[in-house]
Amino acid sequence: MFQKDSCVLVNIGNHFDLKTSVFQAPRRGIYSFSFHVVKVYNRQTIQVNLMQNDYPVISAFAGDQDVTREAASNGVLLMVEREDRVYLKLERGTLMGGWKYSTFSGFLVFPL
């Protein structure tokens, strides 16, 4: 979940819900999703999954013990049905400072 200091920079159509941190697809199509999650002053490994309807699609890891900041990033083209839900899930570890140093982006590439 996003912390209270999170913000949405662009949300055309309002299909991303800031309260639940979930994007709900308005139509069937091919979507592009990417994310960058930054762990700050945290010596444990984090694993972040991009989820589609409660199923993990892709993951990213950050596990270097000797740095104060490290990013876990990934991206995917994904076939999405109307009303599918897409969101990030912190599967392992904790994010000191919450999600405020992180981004989650998506857009429709090709409608079907």
From TrEMBL:
- GO-annotated cellular components: extracellular region; synapse
Q: Does the keyword Secreted apply?
A: yes
Q: Which SMART domains does the UniProt entry name for this protein?
A: C1Q (SM00110)
- Where does this chain mainly localize? secreted
Annotated C1q domain ranges read: 1-112
Q: Does the keyword S-adenosyl-L-methionine apply?
A: no
Q: Which domain of life is it from?
A: Eukaryota
Query: Which InterPro entries would you find in this protein's record?
Result: C1q_dom, Cerebellin_Synaptic_Org, Tumour_necrosis_fac-like_dom
Give TM regions.
none
PROSITE patterns hit by this protein = C1Q
> Which key words tag this protein in UniProt?
Secreted, Signal
A biological process term (GO) from this entry: maintenance of synapse structure
- Cellular location(s): Secreted
Q: What is this protein called?
A: C1q domain-containing protein
Query: What is the source species?
Result: Astatotilapia calliptera (Eastern happy)
